[in-house]
Design goal:
The chain has 365 residues and is an alpha/beta fold. The protein contains eight helices and eleven strands. Helix 3 links the parallel strand 2 and strand 3. The two termini are 41 Å apart.
């Protein structure tokens, strides 16, 4: 059963980990030792009494501070189902075998659970668990207006929009004639909003001042965002030659008036400082603008982000030939690595510093 008491959210979990209240943390499919704000707060030391497990397909700053690294299979090396925000559920088949002893994230969780005495929760054969696991998940959606398609239906299509009733997907939810849960005479019916008279609900909350606002010392807001060529911290996309050549380094965009006030021009190097965490800084090699000039400013900025998307990969040039995590040297727990290629991997040696900010010390822009 699910514990009725909500657990810690992401940031509180990391704070509790650093306080020693959470002794063990297992990280999959993310790179928090780049993307977490105020990275100095989660700096690890040898023998700190904590145990960090990381599942990943490439060496990252997060695997470098891990006590145990589990080599994971990439998405093309596994079978599974994923969902989009448009309500589309889509299945894909494994296209290639994972190298060495790399395995799927879900398989790792299942095997650890079995060794912890919870094998009864995963009563599926080792060579055929994808479908039964998905169908168990699907059973919780049926009859509730969130019916996802069956595994067989997804295998035969290019994805289906839930709710899927009698094999038919729903293109427009809550609309009569499209959503099978809406009667024709209702027109538009928000049938899931039981606590709001089955009408669309708008949440109105009192306004609160931001924790920090621009002032004379820190006159700018800093907002992080995405670029087309890279995804999140770039641990995969920066290994693609064409993508790296398109956007090699982090940049800052400024309003023309602000840049002129700071006496800045296109492609001037810049250094952005935040008051959030004394001693930490966010650095970008270049600034970019389309209708506004480059920023050379070393002025300070208030951060308006809780978790930067691209993070310190503004300072990471990873070795593109490295395929699998196999580096544990220098990690607080001794860097034990499970999987092929014991010892330093080529991908662990490709990082470099920019403007004096070492990897894992700056949270990029």
């Amino acid at each position: 059963t699910i514990n009725p008491k909500p657990g810690l959210h992401t940031m509180d979990m990391f704070r509790a980990f650093m306080r020693g209240e959470v002794k063990v943390m297992w990280t999959q499919t993310t790179n928090p030792w780049v993307s977490i704000p105020n990275l100095n707060r989660i700096k690890r030391e040898p023998g700190d009494g904590r145990f960090l497990i990381v599942s990943d397909i490439y060496p990252t700053p997060t695997t470098e501070v891990a006590d145990l690294v589990l080599p994971a299979a990439a998405w093309v090396e596994r079978e599974g189902v994923f969902g989009n925000t448009e309500r589309r559920t889509q299945h894909w088949h494994k296209a290639a075998d994972p190298p060495g002893e790399a395995t799927e994230d879900a398989w790792q969780i299942i095997e650890v659970a079995r060794r912890m005495g919870m094998e009864h929760l995963f009563p599926w054969p080792e060579d055929d668990w994808h479908k039964p696991m998905y169908e168990e998940y699907r059973s919780f959606t049926l009859g509730l207006g969130k019916d996802v398609a069956s595994y067989e239906q997804l295998e035969q299509t290019r994805g289906m929009l839930w709710p899927v009733v009698d094999g038919v997907e729903t293109r427009y939810r809550y609309a009569a004639g499209h959503d099978p849960y809406v009667k024709k005479d209702r027109g538009v019916h928000f049938y899931k909003a039981k606590g709001y008279g089955e009408k669309a609900a708008f949440w109105i909350r009192p306004w609160h001042r931001p924790a920090e606002e621009p002032d004379d010392e820190y006159p700018f807001w800093l907002c992080t965002g995405r670029v087309l060529e890279h995804w999140h911290t770039g641990s995969m996309t920066r290994r693609v030659k064409q993508l790296h050549q398109a956007v090699k380094e982090g940049y800052v965009e400024m309003n023309r008036a602000d840049a002129q006030r700071a006496a800045s021009r296109r492609r001037d190097p810049c250094l952005s400082r935040s008051s959030t965490s004394p001693g930490s800084r966010t650095s970008s090699r270049w600034t970019r603008w389309t209708t506004s000039p480059r920023n050379r400013t070393t002025r300070n900025a208030r951060s308006a982000s809780s978790e930067p998307e691209r993070g310190g990969d503004a300072h990471v040039q990873a070795d593109r030939t490295s395929r699998r995590v196999a580096h544990g040297a220098g990690s607080p727990g001794g860097g034990r690595v499970l999987g092929p290629g014991q010892g330093p991997g080529p991908g662990s040696r490709g990082r470099r510093e920019v403007d004096g900010c070492g990897p894992g010390r700056a949270s990029g822009i």
